[in-house]
Amino acid sequence: MVKQLNISSLSLNDGQTKGPCPRSAACFLRESLSSVLLVGGDTGDAGHRLADIWRLETGEVSSYNSGSGGGGVGSDDASPSENAAVWTELHPGGHQHAMCARSNAAATVANGRLLIFGGWEASGLAPLDSLAVLDLPANRWLDVSSAQQQLTAPASAMPVDPSAADAMTSSSSAATSASAPAPTALVNGTPQTAGQAATLVSSTVAACAPNGAIAPGGADMHGDPGCGAELAAAAPAPRGQPSLSALTDGSAALLFGGWDGQQRYDDLWRLDCSTWQWQLLQPSGSKPPARADHVGIVWRYCDCGHWKDILVVMGGSSASGLLDDVWLFDVDTTTWRQAHCGGPIPKARSSHAAAAIRTCLLVSGGQAKGEVLGDLHILDLATLTWRPAQWSPQGPPQLCRHGLAATGPTSMPGPPDAALPTAGTAAEQEAGAVAWVFGGFDGTESSGQLHRIQHPLAADPVADDAAEAEVSRALPSGVPLTIADLEDAAEVEAMPSWKQIRRLHAAALAKGLDQYIDPPSGYTCWTAHYLRRRPCCGNACRHCPYGHANVVKSAD
Questions:
Q1: Cα 189 from chain centre
Q2: Distance CA 314, CA 312 (A)
Q3: Counting beta carbons within 10 angstroms of the beta carbon of residue 289, is it exposed (0 to 12), middle (13 to 18) or buried (19 or more)?
Q4: Which of 210, 403, 409, 455 could pair covalently with 424 via S-S, beta carbons 3.0-4.6 A apart?
C-alpha cells in the first residue's frame, strides 16, 4: 500500500523566539505524546560540541499522559498551545557534572527520565562511557552515572569526528588508518587505547551531597580523587554512535553496537533503570555484524495474545561497508534473528534516522556511497515488508546525522487492563501520529531546520494492487481459505491430502491470507505469511519460515 506523506518545513526562530542552533549528530527523541527532546550534537565547527537540552512542544494534541513507559512527563494543565510548536531550553539543576558536551551519543526516555550514554567528548578525540540521567519532571540531574574522568586526549590522538570524517565516504563511515594513533579514553580514571578498552569494565556511581557537590571521598568529572560506590557489575566500553532504546514498561534500556575509533561493537547491553547497573546479554543464535551509525528501536507487538518488546536494528556501517539488513532481538527469549524482508529494499546506509509508529518503521535519509540521501521508506513490521512512500507538497529533506522522532499515538493499543502512555486517547488515535525531523548534515553544512511529516502512517492508503483489493472484498480479514474458495475446487478435491495442503497454502500466500483450513483435520492452519510477523515460536508450525529454528531438538 502506498502511503501519502505530507511534508512541510517550519521556521520557529523569528528573531524574537530563541531556538537551538544548527547541528548534526545530536540526540532527537520522543518525550511524550506532544513533546520531543534535543540533546547536544556538533555544530560543524572544529571542537565545538554541545551540552544543551531543548524541549519541542509540538502542539499536536491537547493533552498527554504522564504514566510509565516509553516516555511522558506532562500533565493536562501543562499542555502546549494548540498547533503552535515552541522550543524551550532546559536548564537542569542537580549534579552539574552529569552532562558534558558530546556528539554521536545515544539517548532514550524511560519512566520520565532521559538517559544519555556515550558519544564523543568536546574535542572529538575520545569516546565516552558515561551515563547521564535527567529527571524530566523535576528538571534535575540524578547522581547515577558512571564516575567518568574528564577526557583529555593527547595532542597526537587521531581526530575521530565522524560527522566530518565520513560524511561522504564510499564504504565505511568510520574507516581509520592502520598507522594512525588510536584515540585515548579514560575508563574510571585509567587511560586506555579506545580499541583496547575492556568490554567489561567496572561501573561506578558517584556519591553526591544533596546540594549537588561531590561528597567527601567522591570522584568528580574532572578527576578529583574521592569515593565512589564500586559496583560488582560490568559496563559498556567507551563508544560513539551506538543505539539506546527503552523497553515499553520503562524498566530497562537496551544498548547495541557503536564505534570507538578503532573497532565497531556487536555487544548488547541491558541497563536496569532502577539499579542503574549494566548487564552484558548473551543472546542465542546468530547475531548481527558489528556496526555503528545504525538505528535501534524497541517495538511492541502482540504475539498470540502475549504483548512483547522487540528491538529492531536496521542498517549502519560495518568493517566491510554499509548495511541494509534488519535484525530483531526478542526481549523475552533473548534471541536474535535476521529479518528477510520483502518489497523494495532501501539502499544500504548509515547515519540515517528512524521512528516506530504503530506497526511500521519510518526510515529517513542517511549517507550511502558518497551521497547524502533525501528519501523516506516504510518497513511494515507486521509483515516484514518494505513499502514505497509518496509525499507532498515537498520531498523529504536530504540529510544524514539528523534526528527523527514521532509524537501522537505511536504504539499499538494494548490489552484493556494495561495503560500504554504512547497509545493515546481515542481522539488522539483518530488524529494519528506526526513525525518530526531536525538538524543533520546536508552535504555542505549543519542544518537547523525543523520538518514536519503529517500523519505518515495514518494517511488514507491508496490501493496499488487491484488483485489485493479484490481479495479483500471477497474474503474478509481473518477468514481462512478453504478448498471451496478456489477456482479449481473440484480438481483440488480429487487430489491427495498432501497436494491439497500445498495447493491451499500457495493460494493463501498469493492472496496474502493468514490462515487456511487443513483438509484432513478441518483445523485452521497458519500460513508463512502470518508466521513471518514474529520469530519462530518453537511449536514446529507446518509452514515455519525459519526452519523450526527454535524448536527444541530431541536428545535422541
A1: 31
A2: 7
A3: middle
A4: 409
Closest CA to 5 of 329, 265, 410, 387: 387
Residue with cell 560543524: 44
Residues 19, 406: Cα–Cα separation, whole Å: 19
**Exposed e or buried b per residue across 100-125, where buried means at least 16 C-beta atoms within 10 angstroms of its C-beta:** bbbbbbbbbbbbbbbbbbbbbbbbbb
Provide CB contacts within 8 A for 326, sequence distance 6+. 312, 313, 314, 338, 339, 341, 379, 384
Block mean pLDDT (10 aa), the chain, length 556: 65 66 96 94 86 90 39 34 76 83 97 96 92 95 59 33 33 30 37 35 29 27 29 77 96 97 97 95 93 96 76 97 96 92 92 91 94 93 81 84 88 42 42 84 94 61 35 49 92 91 89 88 86 78 82 61
CB atoms within 10 A of CB 67: 14
Residues comprising the chain, all counted = 556
Cα Rg, the chain, nearest whole Å: 25
CA distance 445 to 170: 19
The three grid cell numbers given for residue 71, joined into one nine-digit string: 516516555
DSSP letter at 553?
Answer: P
pTM here is 0.67
